[in-house]
Design brief:
With 193 residues, the chain is mostly helical. 74% of the residues lie in helices and 2% in strands. The protein has two domains: 40 residues, no CATH class; 129 residues, no CATH class. Strand 1 and strand 2 form a beta hairpin. The longest helix is centred in the N-terminal third of the chain and has 35 residues. The protein is elongated, with a radius of gyration of 31 Å. 20% of the residues are buried. The N terminus is likely disordered.
Length: 193
């Protein structure tokens, strides 16, 4: 036997019960508050999900073993150039260690940018002089953190008696991974393409 729509034992969809069997008409305010709360929770959940998805996308963009190898090769070239210029400026020309380090680091940054632009990240980034200028400036800013770390390590280890060239190599090594991540995501924006 099927129930008819007028059967009093089944509550109507537009009528609420309080559990005691007493029926009350629905409150439009309660429904709106419930929808708003559920909507906000749903929005927050979607926002967290999209943030997590974006983080995964950025991490996977960094996962290119070939690109990392190229970046480290360019970094090795930059480190050799940095050390050679540091020896020439400080060891041969007598320029103070801090000034010599800053000059050698900036020259190495420009060399590494040119190599990364043409080789490591050749297929990334927009073409055009404005975009190239943005990448040069961003690369310099990103690498300032690496230079600060390298210089701090160089000066600290030199004070402890470590040969300044070895101290410089150790300092350069500490910033390599940080620079790779920052250059990939901020300078060439590999996660966007």
């Amino acid at each position: 036997m099927t129930r008819s729509a007028s059967d009093s034992r089944e509550p109507r969809a537009d009528v609420e019960t309080d559990g005691s069997g007493a029926r009350t008409p629905p409150s439009p305010h309660r429904d709106r508050r419930t929808r708003d709360t559920v909507g906000r929770e749903g929005d927050a959940r979607r926002t967290r999900t999209s943030r997590f998805r974006e983080l995964r996308r950025r991490i996977s963009a960094l996962g290119s073993g070939v690109r990392l190898g190229q970046f480290l090769s360019v970094g090795l070239l930059g480190a050799l150039f940095d050390n050679g210029l540091l020896v020439a400026l400080h060891g041969l020309a007598g320029v103070s260690l801090g000034v010599a380090k800053f000059a050698s680091a900036e020259a190495a940054i420009l060399l590494m940018f040119a190599c990364n632009e043409r080789w490591t990240f050749a297929g990334w980034g927009e073409t055009g002089s404005t975009d190239l200028a943005r990448r040069v400036v961003t690369s310099n800013l990103v690498r300032l953190g690496g230079v600060a770390v390298a210089t701090g390590v160089l000066l600290a280890l030199s004070e402890l008696g470590v040969w300044y060239v070895l101290a410089n190599v150790i300092g350069i090594g500490t910033g390599a991974l940080l620079n790779y991540v920052a250059e990939s995501l901020l300078t060439w924006r590999v996660h966007r393409q």
